[in-house]
From TrEMBL, chain A:
Protein name from the UniProt record: Putative ABC transport system permease protein
Organism of origin: Nonomuraea dietziae
Localization in the cell: Cell membrane
Transmembrane domains' residue ranges: 265-286, 307-332, 352-373, 406-424, 436-460, 481-504, 702-721, 757-780, 792-814
Membrane topology type: Multi-pass membrane protein
TrEMBL record, chain B:
Keyword field contains Nucleotide-binding: yes
Record carries keyword ATP-binding: yes
ABC transporter domain ranges (all copies): 5-238
Keywords of the record: ATP-binding, Nucleotide-binding, Transport
Origin superkingdom: Bacteria
Alphabetical list of CDD domains matching this protein: ABC_MJ0796_LolCDE_FtsE
Higher taxonomy: Bacteria, Bacillati, Actinomycetota, Actinomycetes, Streptosporangiales
Protein name: Putative ABC transport system ATP-binding protein
GO cellular component: membrane protein complex; plasma membrane
Segment forming the signal sequence: none
UniProt source species: Nonomuraea dietziae
GO molecular function: ATP binding; ATP hydrolysis activity; transmembrane transporter activity
PANTHER family for the chain: ABC TRANSPORTER RELATED, IMPORT ATP-BINDING PROTEIN
């Protein structure tokens, strides 16, 4: 059976199916690796390597019927727990660990080594936003004093790369001060006396984590079990690899992004993979129509014919799965690097490479192949043998009505959906065109044959009679073999649609966002201090006191959880990035206040997107550390696209962020002379452009979308080229017949060139219309003009790529000997 | 020099198989010639070489006074378009275009405006009127073969080659097609060269060429079917 199946398939068809499955496997496996990493990857424990058990507050908020949301801001524990845990049997020692922003003020002599890595158990320099700790934590981080005595009082410090007795200027917990180095240690970070650390951290008697060390001969599991008996499930008790999560909630929260990433483009990928595999197998079946018909005539049952096709598909799939999986892991690794490069994926959150994604992808693709083989062979297998033989000469001329109707309907719905940006504004409006593009390409795939046939028929009838024979033949062939042509037209049109709509939708929305941000932050400069872990206390007053500064306001961002506020939000709890501003921000940032006043942004208050609520409403929130609050809406504003749906008052956010520091100070006017700050506040950085926008997360998503899309487009292009090559080589008989009827080799070649032009033009026309309509609507809605933002050269470029691929795939396989009689 | 097509010492080999072995021949204008011989004796090869559809390994072929050997593919095609009509055993109609479009396809390829009056006369004669807008697949085998005949004649070629034109037809259709060929020769002075396995068909020709082993072994003038049958059986006997 297998041998017959393979002998019959001819290599061409199988190669097409092989590449379709190969690429599909790579895409699905790659996506799977990202998703698995989102579910199971572990944050590398970088600091508390000496702790056997780490106890932390819950950083996961459960959701109904959905994955829990990870809280990115540190949730703390009462320090009284430390004593209770230290008295547990089997616990040798326990310490309440704290991390807070701390940094040596840059530019001091002989402290260059302040942030150099230690020798043991640590990687890289400490992040200034969390480099400060209490002395007793040092023992748990695998570090020790090389020289000197532990810091005991305020003003004392232990660090690496300094001399004992040296005075250093340090900003810790936002407070600048002078410290004397009492000990030199071999670990990164700045270690203060425990009492000093408690005060600097601003945690008011609470701790970030409790680190436990088990006594001699006692396992971590035993201690963990004891701790669990004492505390119940209110707190998280971690051992082994899970300790990293407890240590870095922000990093752990980035895992959520890994799951969310494929969600946006995964649907498109899956549809594409299904489409390409289906197309590959149907091509392979079409090539064998005649043989299958003869088999039927020779007595094969429809079931046997279907089995034969299924065997062919499965053989191609089996051959393609292992190399596809390998490519998938490779692609995932590259994507991981890309994410790390953009800062979206913390370097201490490595991707997980398990066998699960490959296995799952293999099962999925095998199913797709079986299904595709079954559908592709259904028609050929069911026909009565006689008409099967007769039909096998020409292709069935009428594409199914249901199929065409469904396709047209989908395209209509898509065009309707694409009008959403005209009706609603805001992030959600972008969803319409994105969905529209997706529906449109499915519609195109379904209705393609009929459309191609109708369009080419109309064209053929209108052609002037004096037309050159090759052109005439090209048009009539495209018309007569609509199914064959439409596969390529639909796939290429789909690529044009996807490529243009994904990229240009993104650039248009980000342009609209940038426009709003620019308008809202016109004439604003920004002062920040990333090397100090955040804006230190006192910097704001100094900035305000500078001559020429009219207004200055601190700003930062955090993540909060709200109920669903808008269409498209998660139905249960929706995590969103929110800006934190104070009452004085109204004089600097122009959010486009509709109602209420920014000056009221004091106490437990928020400002809200004007489309989502009214002044005076109460809003229930979960802060980034999991604390539930009820806030009053004191202002509504219109620039939600650029600044997000929600702005928190500083008072409300205070105590609920990990660092407790502002990220930047917004200064008006931008022309104010801030150069003197560099001298008074080493480490402060002035930029003419305010960074205060929350578009970062979207930018990452956009980048990933484009990267995945590039892979996807490559995949489809290769598979379409494959199909075209197979189609052309399968036409050698047809070309020879033309030659015998009096066509010169030149005429046959010209005919093929015209055909490729017709295919390319049809594909581009379909793609441009299906991408263009939503994009025009989007641009009108978002930018107030009919053309999208962004690299418009993509349009001619995509036309060119399509034309080149079609030309090469149709014309190059035809060799001289194919046309010789 | 009234020969339409001349072959001089034409040899055509496929690797070690010599399909045509040093054949010299002339086909005179206005004659109906049948070509017979056992299977594999080189009849199709002879026709294809004579029609410039195939290139001989050695020797020269002249069509309408033009030596086609040595011309490039394009020039050869042009000569063929002008002088030769070919009726293939398997019709060779393009399935994707209508019958009418098939009939004029060679003219279209040659960039020649079809002679409408001539075409409709041919169509009438073969009885295809009313079926021109159909697709070839919607015609019967005989109808398709008659369409192929019209196509071969549409350009008023000097010579029409037909390779087993009745091979796939029932007796009646076969008789019709043969009658048609004979009419063409008698009434219009058309030259027709036809391969056939049927002695009765060969009997309608002016002459019959008999081939064996790539050579022309006999040339009979209007032989009676019985005589032909005997000769052929003997030939087959020799071969086996
Ligand atoms: N393309 C080819 N490649 C190799 N050998 C060929 C080819 N075409 C024909 N032959 C060989 O050349 C010889 C003559 O073939 P040809 O087709 O001319 O025979 P024929 O007389 O037409 O036979 P039939 O009556 O069966 O059609 C045969 O031995 C055949 O095997
Ligand atoms: Mg033959």
């Amino acid at each position: 059976m297998i041998r017959t199946a393979l002998a019959m398939s001819g290599l061409g068809g199988l190669v097409v199916a092989f590449f379709a499955v190969f690429g599909g496997m790579a895409l699905v496996t790659g996506t799977g690796v990202i998703v698995e990493s989102g579910l199971r990857s572990q944050v590398n424990s970088t600091r508390l390597t000496g702790a056997d058990v780490v106890v932390s507050a819950r950083q996961l908020v459960p959701r109904k019927e959905d994955l829990p949301v990870a809280l990115p801001e540190r949730a703390t524990l009462p320090s009284s727990i430390v004593d209770r845990l230290s008295r547990l049997p089997g616990v040798e020692s326990a310490v309440g660990d704290l991390s807070f922003p701390a940094a040596v003020v840059p530019g001091q002599p002989s402290t260059s080594g302040a942030v150099t890595p230690g020798t043991s158990g640590s990687t890289g320099p400490a992040d200034p936003a969390a480099a400060g700790h209490g002395w007793s934590s040092l023992a748990f981080s695998g570090g020790k004093a090389v020289e000197g005595a532990p810091p005991r009082r305020d003003g004392e410090l232990a660090m690496a790369g300094a001399r004992v007795g040296q005075e250093v200027r340090v900003v810790a917990g936002g407070r600048p001060g002078r410290y004397r180095v009492t000990a030199v240690i071999d670990a990164p970070g700045l270690y203060f006396a425990d009492s000093t650390a408690a005060e600097l951290s601003g945690r008011s008697g609470r701790v970030d984590l409790v680190a436990l060390r088990a006594g001699r001969g006692i396992t971590a599991q035993t201690v963990a079990a004891e701790a669990e008996r004492l505390l119940g499930d209110r707190y998280v008790i971690s051992t082994g690899g899970a300790r990293g999560d407890a240590e870095r909630p922000g990093t752990a929260a980035a895992r959520g992004m890994l799951i969310a990433l494929p969600a946006s483009i995964g649907g498109i990928s899956l549809i594409t993979v299904g489409f390409v595999i289906g197309g590959g197998l149907s091509l392979s079946v079409n090539r064998q129509r005649r043989d299958l018909a003869l088999l039927r005539a020779a007595g094969a049952t429809p079931r046997q014919v279907r089995r034969l096709v299924a065997v062919q598909g499965c053989v191609a799939a089996l051959a393609a799965l292992p190399p596809g999986a390998a490519l998938g892991y490779y692609l995932a690794a590259r994507l991981g690097e890309l994410l790390e490069g953009t800062g979206a994926l913390p370097p201490d959150l490595p991707l997980t490479y398990g066998p699960l994604p490959a296995v799952a992808a293999a099962v999925l693709l095998f199913g797709v192949v079986r299904l595709a083989a079954w559908t592709a062979s259904l028609k050929a297998s069911r026909m009565p043998p006689v008409s099967a033989v007769a039909e096998s000469k020409a292709e069935p001329r009428v594409p199914s009505r249901v199929r065409t109707g469904g396709g047209l309907l989908l395209m209509l719905v898509a065009l309707g959906l694409s009008a959403t940006p005209l009706l609603v504004r805001g992030e959600i409006a972008g969803l319409g065109p994105a969905t529209a593009a997706l529906l449109a390409i499915v519609g195109l795939a379904l209705a393609g044959p009929m459309l191609v046939q109708a369009a080419m028929g109309a064209l053929a009838r209108r052609l002037p009679s004096g037309l050159s024979a090759p052109l005439w033949l090209a048009v009539t062939n495209t018309h007569g073999y609509a199914l064959r042509t439409a596969g390529a037209v639909a796939a290429l049109g789909m690529m044009v649609t996807l490529g243009l709509s994904v990229v240009l939708t993104q650039t248009t929305i980000s342009q609209a966002k940038a426009d709003e941000v620019n308008a809202g932050l016109a004439d604003v400069a920004s002062v920040s201090a990333p090397r100090l872990g955040g804006v230190p206390h006192g910097l704001l007053d100094d900035v305000r006191a500078l001559p020429g500064v009219m207004a200055a306001a601190p700003a930062s961002t955090t993540t909060v959880l709200t109920r669903s506020l808008a269409v498209g939000d998660d139905p249960g709890l929706h995590a969103r990035t929110a800006m934190i501003l104070g009452p004085e921000a109204g004089g600097v940032v122009d959010l486009g206040v509709v109602e209420g006043s920014m000056g009221e942004l004091k106490g437990d208050t928020v400002a809200l997107d004007a489309d989502l609520g009214e002044v005076g409403e109460r809003l229930d929130l979960l802060m980034g550390d999991g604390t539930p609050v009820r806030a009053r809406v004191v202002a509504t504003y219109s620039r939600a696209l650029g600044f997000g749906a929600l702005v928190l008052s500083r008072d409300l956010a205070a105590g609920h962020t990990t660092t407790g520091l502002d990220a930047e100070i917004l200064v008006r006017p931008a022309a104010a002379d801030l150069s003197s700050l560099a001298k008074t506040w080493p480490g402060a950085e002035v930029s003419r452009r305010a960074a205060a926008s929350i578009a970062d997360a979207d930018a990452t998503q956009g980048l990933v979308n484009i990267a995945v899309l590039a892979v996807l487009i490559g995949y489809v292009l290769v598979s379409v080229a494959n199909r075209l090559v197979a189609t052309t080589t399968g036409r050698v008989e047809e070309l020879l017949a033309l030659r015998r009827l009096g066509a010169t080799p030149g005429q046959v070649r010209r005919m093929l060139r015209w055909e490729s032009l017709v295919i390319a033009l049809a594909a581009c026309a379909a793609g441009l219309v299906l991408a263009g309509v939503p994009l025009v609507m989007l641009s009108v809605g978002f930018l107030g003009r009919p053309w999208p933002a962004g690299p418009l050269w993509l349009v001619p470029a995509s036309v060119l790529v399509v034309a080149l691929v079609v030309w090469a795939a149709v014309n190059l396989p035809v060799r001289r000997r194919h046309l010789a009689l | 020099m009234s020969d339409v097509v001349t072959l001089e010492r034409v040899t055509r080999s496929y690797g070690s198989v010599t399909a045509l072995d040093d054949v010299s021949l002339g086909f005179p204008r206005g004659r109906f010639v049948a070509v017979m011989g056992p299977s594999g004796s080189g009849k199709s090869t002879l026709l294809q070489c004579a029609a410039a559809l195939d290139t001989p390994t050695s020797g020269t072929v002249r069509i309408g006074g033009v030596t086609v050997s040595g011309l490039n593919e394009t020039r050869r095609t042009e000569v063929r378009r002008k002088h030769v009509g070919f009726v293939f055993q398997s019709y060779n109609l393009l399935p994707s275009i209508t019958v009418e479009e098939n009939l004029t396809l060679p003219l279209r390829l040659a960039g020649v405006r079809p002679d409408r009056a001539w075409l409709s006369e041919l169509v009438e004669r073969v009885g295809l009127g009313g079926r021109l807008r159909r697709r070839p697949a919607e015609l019967s085998g005989g109808q398709q073969q008659r369409a192929a005949l019209v196509r071969a004649l549409a350009a008023r070629p000097d010579v029409v080659f037909a390779d087993e034109p009745t091979g796939a037809l029932d007796l009646r259709s076969a008789a019709e097609v043969l009658g048609l060929l004979r009419e063409l020769v008698d009434e219009l002075g058309q030259t027709v060269i036809m391969v056939t396995h049927d002695p009765a068909a060969a009997a309608r020709a002016h002459e019959t060429l008999v081939m064996a082993d790539g050579r022309v072994v006999d040339l009979l003038s209007a032989p009676a079917p019985e005589e032909l049958a005997v000769r052929l059986t003997r030939l087959n006997g020799v071969l086996t």
